[in-house]
Amino acid sequence: MVFGGTAMSSQENTIMLLQPGALQQRTPMRSRCDVTMDAIKSYILRERLQPGDLLPTEVELCEAVGASRSSVREAVRKLEGLNIVNVEHGRGTFVGSLSLDPMVETLAFRSMVSVGKNFDDLKDVVELRRFLDLGCADEVCAKVKGTEQPELGALVDAMVSSAERGEDFLYADIDFHMGLLDPLGNTIAKQMVHSLWLVHMAVLPQIGLAPSEKMLDTAEAHRRMLDAAIAGDAQMYREAVREHYRPIESILREHLPVR
């Protein structure tokens, strides 16, 4: 951003937006609403507010960010759509859950828009899921090594049984992956994996692919992932992850060629 003839970093821009009256000095390159949204987010960070914390009243927030009531109202509406704030009528405005739901909706819609033209977005989602599983290999194996995992074992058995009957096992699949990540205690990693799975789930019905015999290979790959994690063998775990995604990536290449 250029302010007074001097190039400013995004951090410096944020600091300027926190000053009273900053909106009257802004450049015309960004809308007043966007600037106000940035100012409110910066206020949340500056005050170290957490999800569920109460924000100031509308009048107080206007004064804090140097914006008009109409700008603050519009900004709050948009921030609510992003789960950054949550408006409870009669109670006030709170810091939102900060979930990844808006990202899921955008990715799912983007992938569905591409159906019928090309399938790069869906392939990218599957590939990113694989990247995340591979990236967590060392941590998963370190945490799961030497433990008993009867619930994950039962999920694997259910997936194999479903595959043998020619049925999908999407919900057992995500429960399995979430269960492997539980010992890590990394909420963001779990949200990312779950969000990408939701995108995958949203797009598949639009394509209309029938369950494939290759899905049995995927189901069995889950067993090898679990065995490797319990053995603490990260290299074996990574190979099982690759085997897990190989069938669906093969199906996408076979049935959904990029045009």
Supply the key terms.
259 residues, mainly alpha, Four Helix Bundle (Hemerythrin (Met), subunit A), 2 domains, two-stranded antiparallel sheet, two-stranded antiparallel ribbon, 12 helices, elongated, disordered N terminus
Give a short synopsis of this structure.
The chain folds into 2 domains: 2-95, Arc Repressor Mutant, subunit A (Orthogonal Bundle); 101-255, GntR ligand-binding domain-like (Four Helix Bundle (Hemerythrin (Met), subunit A), Up-down Bundle). The chain is 65% helix and 5% strand.
Describe how the helices and strands are arranged:
Layout: E1 2-3, E2 6-7, H1 10-17, H2 32-46, H3 58-65, H4 69-81, E3 85-88, E4 92-95, H5 101-114, H6 120-135, H7 137-144, H8 150-164, H9 170-181, H10 187-207, H11 215-231, H12 234-255
Helix pairs in contact: 2-4, 5-10, 6-10, 6-12, 7-11, 7-12, 8-9, 8-11, 9-10, 11-12
